[in-house]
Amino acid sequence: MKKTETTSTVLLKHHLKALKLPTVLAECEKVAQRCAADNAGHLAFLLQLTELELLDRERRAAERRLKAARFPTLKTLEDFDFAAQPSLNKVLVAELMRCEFIDRREAVILIGNPGTGKTHVATALSPRPWPPRRAGGASGCASGG
Question: Domain check: are 118 and 130 in the same one?
Answer without folding.
Answer: yes
